[in-house]
Amino acid sequence: MHVLQFRGPGELTLEQRAAPPAPGPGQVTFRPTLAGVCGTDRAIYLGRYHCEPPRVLGHEAVGVVTEVGEGVTRLRPGDRVVLDPTQSCGRCDRCLRAESSHCANKSALEIGVGRDGAFAQLLTVEEQALYPLPADVPDRRGVLIEPLACVLTGLRAAAVGPDDRVVVLGGGPMGVLSALLAVRWAARVSLVEPDPYRRELAEAVTGLTPLAELDESASPPPTVVVDTTGSLLEPSLRTVQDGGRVLLLGCDTAATATVRPFDLTGRCVSLIGSCDYHAQVFPAAIELIRGLPCEQLVTDVFPLTESSAAFELLALGPGSGYGAGKLAFAP
Ligand SMILES: [Zn+2]
Ligand SMILES: [Zn+2]
Question: What 3-state class would DSSP assign to 179?
Fold first, then answer.
């Protein structure tokens, strides 16, 4: 079978590998039909996010079960499934506090980062890492369940509710999913994205008319600012209403910011960082996505053999614009 292997920064190679052995007790082998390319994959490729090579990347995936091991009861061959890549040990202090996304042993257990993932024609995982994909959820929507679980965790942490005015910064997949969800929960939602391609895509998916620039003196100001770019903390703080919340959902490992602590204290602004999701949120995201038509966000699907074309579309060059929404491989 073919796998797309990370060999070090800037090096992704298509390799031939023997098919995995028959699944052991409690394990399931599935054939990924669609595997999303995430900002994390891009950061790993660019050497900005730690991942020990060699590693088969790919943590956002849907597929079809091909074989099940002894004792597997929830799944059988032919079932459509979605991968929950965030596995936790269930034994450390944080897992026992139901905060599995902070599991002390998570890094080695994360499928597609700490262990081999779904940019492959077959993958064997534990039964609990797969959930049945509802029949009314097409693959292109199902592949967005993992990022939706991250967004759901963040918006819950920021307690977004019916009396909120929400501004979402960034019209990438995380921004669009945040806006899509916030539209259902909050009184008013707007989305800010400088790139015209992404504005158009965000409009098609959310029905909102995205703004090219953040209006820092909007009146009344937003009660919640969601930064999905990871680099706009300072303007977020300047814009949010006193007593409001700034939710940081984007991961930009290179960004830094200067914060005057008194702006938080004196104005009673809450700063909330959120990344990943707790295990319990994943089934909720599966249920939620049934009513969120968002498959248009997946704009380009490539075979594994065309990985360089795929990564080129992710605006890897300096100053290059975006030419895609969510990219995915069809292994
Ligand atoms: Zn991801
Ligand atoms: Zn743990």
Answer: helix
Q: Which residues lie closer than 8 Å to 252 by C-beta, 6 or more apart?
A: 229, 230, 231
Distance 182 CA to ligand 1 centre (A): 20
Which DSSP state fits 117?
-
CATH superfamily ID and name for 159-273 = NAD(P)-binding Rossmann-like Domain (3.40.50.720)
Ligand 2 centre and the CA of 279: distance in Å?
Answer: 11
Q: Where are the domains of the chain?
A: 2-147+277-329, 159-273
Nearest ligand to residue 43 Cα: 1
Cα 284 from Cα 32, distance rounded (Å): 22
Ligand 2 centroid – CA 316 distance (Å): 35
Domain 2-147+277-329 falls in which CATH fold? Quinone Oxidoreductase; Chain A, domain 1 (3.90.180)
The string of pLDDT tens digits covering residues 164-201 is: 999 999 999 999 999 999 999 999 999 999 999 999 99
Q: What is the pLDDT of residue 157?
A: 95
Ligand with smallest separation from the Cα of 96 = 2
C-alpha 161 to ligand 1 mean position (Å): 25
**What tens digit of pLDDT does each residue of 208-227 get?**
999 999 999 999 999 999 99
CA-wise closest residue to 62 among 285, 306, 278, 276: 285
Question: 102 CA distance to ligand 2 centroid (A)?
Answer: 7
The order of strands in the sheet holding 11-16 is 11-16, 2-8, 55-56
**Among the bound ligands, the one closest to the CA of 277:** 1
Q: Measured in angstroms, how far is the CA atom of residue 98 from the centroid of ligand 2? A: 9
Q: Which residues surround ligand 1, an ion (CB under 5 A)?
A: 38
